[in-house]
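Sample entry (211 residues):
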Amino acid sequence: MRLRALKSLALAIPLVLIFSASALADSCLSFASFSCAKSTPNNVHLIGDVSSGGLSIGSFLTGNSFSVVGVNSHVSGDIVIIAASAGSLSGASLGGNSFVTLSTSPFNMSALGAINSTLSAMGINASSLSFGYVDLHTMLNGTTAVNVTASGLPMGTALYAAIVDAKGQIVFLTPNSEALITKSVVPEPGTMTLLGSGLIGLAGLVRRRRN
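Predicted structure, serialized as tokens:
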């Protein structure tokens, strides 16, 4: 009996260590030329236009711009935006920079679960997601917000920010609760201007007819 108990204990210890290691595993995933630092706190906010109303992703992006801001003064580095989309990221851009396509997901299972549940709640099929990133080549310094203009993002695109240091290491990430997701196709800034001009012209025409 003692021998059998010792064998069971010997088998149990490695399993406990494996599960402990996975529980403590870093949530960061390396992608492209960017590697994960030893610690990647979720200290980067993405600020959109509308609250998500309890969905798994933080906010809806209803316009063509958003802001990146750090939680504390220690958050600094180059901003890289990573995306998972129910549509194609080809032709979409951030800050005038086109997306680089990724063949594998840069998101861990927790983030993918949040993205999938949000898309499902929106009635969007998330069975085949496309992934990509944009290096903005813009520094985030402390708590100063960096504004980003988006163009051509498909409906159902989830955005997260990764802050990269001078060594190419990802040192800060956006948590699921602070990510952004598009409710509709994000128009180009030029399209918005054209639409505004058209509405002003239409208003003038209606005023003339009334006079």
